Fold this sequence. Notes:
Elements: E1 4-7, H1 9-21, H2 27-42, H3 53-62, E2 72-77, E3 80-84, H4 90-108, E4 110-118, H5 124-132, E5 137-142, E6 163-167, E7 176-180, H6 187-196, E8 205-206, H7 216-221, E9 223-224, H8 230-245, E10 268-275, H9 277-281, H10 285-298, H11 307-319, E11 321-324, H12 325-336
Parallel strand pairs: 3-4
Antiparallel strand pairs: 1-11, 2-3, 4-10, 5-6, 5-10, 6-7, 8-9
Helix pairs in contact: 1-2, 1-3, 1-12, 2-4
Amino acid sequence: MSATETLTLAEAHELAVAALVASNTAPDVAESVAQALVAAEADGQSGHGLSRVPSYAGQARSGKVNGHAVPKLEDVTPALFRVDACDGFAYPAFDMVIQHLPGRAHKLGIAMAAVRRSHHFGQAGAHCEKLAEHGLAAFVYGNAPKSIAPWGGRTPLFGTNPIAFAAPAGKGRAPLIIDLAVSRVAKGKIMAAEKAGKSIPEGWALDPDGNPTTDASAAMAGTMIPIGEAKGAALAMMVEVMSAAMVGASLAFEAPSLFTSEGPVLNLGQTIIAIDPELVSGGLFGERMDTLLDTVAAEDGARLPGSRRLAARQKATAEGLSIPVPILDEIRQIIAVA
């Protein structure tokens, strides 16, 4: 097991910004990206955290992602707009979505944004959470490069294609967040394990020959196992429709790897739907949510979705982040050679 080093959230943020700026990324873009990566690390989602910095930095240097891109908003209807990420990082595009979507959803009851020419968008639930803080229920769909085979096949055609949902929870509770990849784990967790020199649990992935593996490198070269077997593969295809076909983005099997520096831009897609639940329910939503969550919380042994994320966030704020030294060494090397 590799050694770790503890950083404060501020130190981790500064380190990520420095590596990205040293890698042909504009300072304001680097700030947006670093904020998202450190938040993921704090939430216990290391696969979307600092382990992404080296690949992001390498892609910015090579031009696989445009570190200076400024997203552009295009109105389609009062309830629908598109954001062109301009082959840049997804996070500034999502910052624009969060700025413009709530007002439309509250006015119209439901509104939608489509992000195209995008990149890896990290913790899907984090974007939903921001919308829930505006009093909205929200869905986020996003596709990723191929890593899951259609059920019964062996060739990967779908990504891990995350789905996230959030809703206001009432009674001073944090928003309800449900965030899942259609694979048994997000591929970023395997990448993080590989960088840290760790094995992975059996049941996460198959090697290139289709055999179960605990070797992270073999898993990265192989395929991911979907949740719920055939049902998970079907969900992956649904997300592919919602986030790639719907948006006009690259399909999973057309997109290059998110983990290598070389190659063309990814042109991934994301769809965000926001709903005003009080408007839809005629003001009954808050009471119904209180009843639902109180009942679930009262069940012996039950755990509300997102509770581990909140506990990890509180611990990280108080105690800092424990980061594998090999990941920090790689990030610091990027800064040193700039």
